[in-house]
Amino acid sequence: MSAEEDRLARITWSLVAEPSDAVALLARTALGAGAALELAREASAAEALQLLGGSIPGDPATDGGASDPRRRLEQALARWRSRLRHVDVPAQLARAERDGIRVLVPGDPQWPTALDDLEVAAPHCLWVLGDEDPCLPGTQGSVAVVGSRASSPYGEDVAGGMSAALASRGIAVISGGAYGIDAAAHRGALAAGAAPTLAVLAGGLDALYPRGNARLLETIRDRHALLSEAPPGTAPTRWRFLARNRLIAALAQVTVVVEASWRSGALSTARRADDLSRTVAAVPGPVTSAASAGCHRLIRERGAVLVTGGDDVLELLPGADPVAEAAGPQDELDLFSPADRRVLDAVPPRSATTCDRLAVIVDRTPEEIRAALGRLELFGAVRIAGEQVRRARG
Amino acid sequence: MSAEEDRLARITWSLVAEPSDAVALLARTALGAGAALELAREASAAEALQLLGGSIPGDPATDGGASDPRRRLEQALARWRSRLRHVDVPAQLARAERDGIRVLVPGDPQWPTALDDLEVAAPHCLWVLGDEDPCLPGTQGSVAVVGSRASSPYGEDVAGGMSAALASRGIAVISGGAYGIDAAAHRGALAAGAAPTLAVLAGGLDALYPRGNARLLETIRDRHALLSEAPPGTAPTRWRFLARNRLIAALAQVTVVVEASWRSGALSTARRADDLSRTVAAVPGPVTSAASAGCHRLIRERGAVLVTGGDDVLELLPGADPVAEAAGPQDELDLFSPADRRVLDAVPPRSATTCDRLAVIVDRTPEEIRAALGRLELFGAVRIAGEQVRRARG
């Protein structure tokens, strides 16, 4: 079958099957997307069983936990067919295109081949919103910085500072776009600006979730990219979040958990990274803080590397060059408070920005931003002309 | 030579040689204390070289760093002889006895045989002030809880709580009696009361150092014991502190570093414990806290086990029984604030105590103690009769 047919078959699968539909993933991997789709349309459970063999996994998201392989296949065929009856692939693609959403499949030059390490669990395709190339050319590595939604100010500061340090060294920062640690990681990377930050979402890219992060996600979309294996119109659900975590783990060479409670979802991302033989690292915190209990557990029980900041993480990236990109501006930063530094970091090296845009990136009020810009201008670090803010040097 | 002669020879060595005098330790180990003393009195450097062989270590505390073995022996013989001329062993022992200071040597039933693991570095003898038996019979294990003098309130709380939890499980808590983490560890163990806490000091036991901890050290002396390899009249010096650390590491089955800066003396105790193949553990803290940097370094670079509290430490003690001693009173403690719990913990299970004594142990003002006792009495946890305070139950 042609590459175009394979592409359409994969897109159809992403419209028909849950990300966590292990039977669909198995069928696609065993037969190829197109042949698997024919099976979905026409085969009987008996024929499917013959083609796929007896070890049919359950789908925790959808099946009733049937233990009999043939029964599981009947359930799978049933759920696929009911969806196939209603799915209109060309219409879906047209709507996605109107929303600026691209689709990538294996073989596309922009396909992040790191996802192939997931093997049978690799997504059928990837929906992309934004200009950034998800295979991240020109970056010196990629790190997932993840953690609890219920984060502490301490955790958010560490996540932001670590991500800014990594991005300033040309490392792409990947996270889940959620509240708390994820948002702090994206903001830190946006502030440093030197490398892309990607948000991998659990739902469709036509509705940015969580709503409270809409402006942050829009900024990531405008400057870099949002990714999802779920087609537009898909609501994020618990199972889709858990399935999404494997993509974050696969896209990154190192997964850093900054804060996680004893049973945080971030631990599942660490587990997936472990499964992929990726390096897992965790940031310690006060033993009195429940938000750090999961990190301490990872270090104590699951061999995660203890990291205290961006430099520790860089040591875990064989490819990374600790000195690249650090350079000039860093020196003058020592003049300013950490808060003002964040603002200065958020001013692009070569282009102009605005106070409002900085407010989104740094997550401060425009008034606070103006005050910081005043101090920065006083020390000759930025030039302000009307609404336009530029770096005075570089 | 008789056991009594060996005892006197060892005591003489502790009066003549620095704890860190590696040549003295070597001679004693190679020839026995008595014969080594004869060598110190009469041998020429040439004869000594013949008896001890060519690998004569330097003494960082005293020698000029002579690299030639014969020269080192000349220096050693010179420093020993000048001291031997002035030392009056019977007078020293009589004075120690007046101060209530005992001397223990290997072979004594109370000698802590754990020190023998130090081999050539084992102390000549041990000076003991207090009733506690340094070989800690009846305890379920021993843990060294050490850390920076420049500690944070966080570190002191963790050290105190961890030590109280360990002592309440019958684990002896060993530390150095210094300001900061050491003091918090001793206080926590005293508060739990169920197991001894020993302070190993770097100077002579006739002058309790640091002065600011005098009342705490007196309490440890009265309830348990103070130990030192240095005879009465010895001032604590940097080298004696470093030498002392090996005793703490050897006496404990596990060494826990609660807080340590990047170059803290507590790291040397961890190193000694490592050398002895003892388990080293460290407590994490905020990565933003310099007081935790050494602990993070131990975990990240030197394989220390991350521990978050007493239960984690208990898991590192094969002999320990996590449930023993916990029991009854614990339940009612949930009624009270942590501060009040510390006070209740400090009230002996079966005997009476006083407000002033509690003030020392818990390190609060008598006024704070009275307020806490009022609340505890209100809930029927303690009975107060005049100055006498008792547990209402048990």
Automatic annotation (TrEMBL), chains A, B:
<dbReference type="Pfam" id="PF02481">
    <property type="entry name" value="DNA_processg_A"/>
</dbReference>
<comment type="similarity">
    <text>Belongs to the DprA/Smf family.</text>
</comment>
<dbReference type="InterPro" id="IPR057666">
    <property type="entry name" value="DrpA_SLOG"/>
</dbReference>
<protein>
    <submittedName>
        <fullName>DNA-processing protein DprA</fullName>
    </submittedName>
</protein>
<feature type="domain" description="Smf/DprA SLOG">
    <location>
        <begin position="103"/>
        <end position="317"/>
    </location>
</feature>
<dbReference type="InterPro" id="IPR003488">
    <property type="entry name" value="DprA"/>
</dbReference>
